Amino acid sequence: MQFHFAPLQGYTDYDYRNAHATVYGPADTYYTPFVRLEKGREFRPKDLKDISPDNNHVPHIVPQLIAGTHDEAATIIDMMHDMGYHEIDINMGCPHRLMVIKGKGAAILAQPARVADVLRVTDEYPDITFTLKMRTGMDSHDECLALAPVINAHRLAHVTVHPRTGRQQYTGRADRDAFARFASACDKPLVYNGDIATCADIDAVIARFPQLAGIMIGRGLLANPALISEWKTGTEPDPKARRTALRKFHGTLLAAYRERMQGEAQILAHLKPLWEYLYPELDKHLRKQITKAGRLTAYIRAVEEALR
C-alpha cells in the first residue's frame, strides 16, 4: 500500500516534512501545502521557499496548486515546471472559507464546467504527471457523481478523495459510502483520505476498498507521526518508545527552526500549533503548559516534562 502525507497549511512546511522523513522513515509521497496566486498574480515568497527543491529532502515531494480558472492554474504550473517539477497535484478539496468565497478548492466542485476548465491544463503539459485531490462535493455528495465524466476525460495519474463535503469542513464523519459511489463512477486510480487515525482505521479502509492505489493521511499523522511505520511493521511501540521518538522528532524540528528563523517568537509561532494535534493522549495540564509558554525556554521545559 502506498502512503501519502497530506499537506496541511500552517503545519507541514518543508522543515516538518524533512524531520518526519528523517525520524520516522518517509511516507511514499509528501505533498506541499497548496500554492496560490495573489491579487497581483504574484506568488507569496514563503510558498516559493516551501516548494523549492533545495529545501525539500524527502524521497518524493509533489507540489500542490489551488486555482479557480485554467489560466490561473497554468501560471502556477509554469512556475513549478521552471523549478524542475514534473508531477503536480491540483487541489479541489480545500473547505476553508477564504478559498471557498474565491471560488477555489471545494467551491469549484459544484460547477462541472469550471472543473473541466481547470483540468484542461492536464492535457497541455504532456511532460507533467497530474493528480487531483478533491472532496465528494461542496454541498452534496452527489456532486462528485456529476463530475466523474469530467474527471474520467482528463489525464490524471490518480484522484485522492476525502468523502466529506466542503460545507462539512472537518465535522461529522467521512462518508465511505459516498466514496464507494464515486469509485464505481470514476475510472481513475483512487487514493482514500479521511478519518485515518489508527492502524485499525487503515485496515478497515483496505478491507473495504482493496483496489485502492493508496491512502492519504493528514491529521492522523499530525497526531501520531509514527502511524505509517507502525502499520508497516505491524507493531505498536510501548508509550516510552513513542515518547522517545517524539523527543527526537521535536528536537530535529526545533533545530531546523532555530537555524533559519529569527527570534524565539517566530519559532514558537511554528511549534506551538503542532500541539493542537500532536500526542493526543497527553495530559491536558501539560498540554496547556506547552501552548501557553511565552518564552522558548519555558516551552522547551514544558515539552521535556511532557515527553519525559
Count of DSSP E strands?
Answer: 9
Provide the spatial order of strands within the biggest beta sheet.
3-2-1-9-8-7-6-5-4
Q: How many helical elements?
A: 15
> Could you list the spans in which at least 5 consecutive residues all have pLDDT below 50?
none
* Strand residue content: 5-15%
The first-to-last residue Cα distance is 34 Å
Mean pLDDT: 96
Order of helices and strands: EHEHEEHEHHHEHEHEHEHHHHHH
Please outline the major beta sheet.
9 strands, parallel
Function: Catalyzes the synthesis of 5,6-dihydrouridine (D), a modified base found in the D-loop of most tRNAs, via the reduction of the C5-C6 double bond in target uridines.
Domain DUS-like FMN-binding: 5-276
Protein name: tRNA-dihydrouridine synthase
Pfam families: Dus
Topology of this protein?
Blueprint lengths: L2 E3 L8 H11 L4 E3 L13 H7 L9 E2 L1 E2 L4 H13 L4 E6 L4 H4 L11 H8 L1 H4 L4 E9 L5 H10 L6 E7 L10 H10 L4 E4 L5 H10 L5 E4 L1 H5 L3 H7 L5 H22 L3 H8 L12 H9 L3 H11 L2
Parallel strand pairs: 1-2, 1-9, 2-3, 4-5, 5-6, 6-7, 7-8, 8-9
Helix pairs in contact: 1-12, 3-5, 5-7, 12-13, 14-15
